[in-house]
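Design request, tokens follow.
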């Protein structure tokens, strides 16, 4: 698997434009199998043409089909991009002092996101979280656990993203917990959001954030 290879070799996607970009949809572990048959028509419908990708154009994603509480994954410049539709209940957890005290960089002081996503939800619109789905430890792909049990995949963990390779934990805004191998929050790619129309790789007017600006992919 790609994530295993990345961890073994220490390589990470460059996020340079590439023809092999494509769209796929993933979900939290709870829904991956159940929705597999239903999602591929959606994937085919949204796959951009190769010339567009080769030119490094932004990737457009219609989020109207993303259910509340669900996470999908698209691929942009060879990297998985996590897109979460966060409910009010999930969003409320991001401000809880019990959570914040366990985060390594709760205020996103380290440049792992554009300035327009340096806020409590690390997003343009709190409802939708958009993150590069590559663990900042050795490059595995974390898994989505919006509602974990008390013991799985980690004890007394409120949920978010869990990296199975070495146990790094992130919250639902991609903020990394203290005391885990991963050193940084998940990067936020440049993007715009107008209603349910997401464009990954584009910046809002007046902004020029590039992935080369982040401390670590
Ligand atoms: S790659 Fe080591 S914890 Fe994620």
């Amino acid at each position: 698997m790609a994530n295993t290879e990345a961890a073994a070799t220490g390589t990470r996607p460059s996020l340079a434009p590439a023809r092999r970009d494509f769209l796929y949809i993933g979900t939290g572990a709870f829904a991956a199998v159940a929705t597999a048959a239903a999602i591929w028509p959606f994937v085919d419908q949204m796959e951009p043409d190769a010339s567009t990708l080769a030119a490094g154009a932004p990737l457009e994603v219609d989020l109207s089909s993303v259910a509340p509480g669900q996470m999908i994954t698209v691929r942009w410049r060879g990297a998985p991009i996590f897109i979460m539709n966060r409910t009010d209940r999930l969003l409320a957890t991001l401000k809880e002092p019990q959570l914040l005290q366990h985060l390594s960089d709760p205020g996103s002081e380290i440049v792992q996101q554009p300035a327009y996503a340096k806020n409590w939800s690390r997003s343009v619109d709190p409802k939708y979280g958009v993150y590069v789905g590559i663990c900042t430890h050795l490059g595995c792909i974390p898994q989505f656990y919006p509602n974990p049990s008390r013991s799985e995949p980690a004890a007394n963990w409120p949920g978010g993203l869990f990296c199975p390779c070495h146990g790094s934990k992130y919250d639902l805004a991609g903020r990394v917990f203290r005391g885990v191998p991963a050193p940084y929050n998940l990067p936020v790619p440049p993007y715009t959001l107008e209603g349910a129309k997401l464009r990954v790789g584009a910046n809002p007017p007046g902004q020029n954030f590039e992935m080369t600006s982040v401390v670590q992919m």
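Comment from the thread starter after seeing the answer: thanks! Residues 181 and 209 are 27 Å apart (CA to CA).
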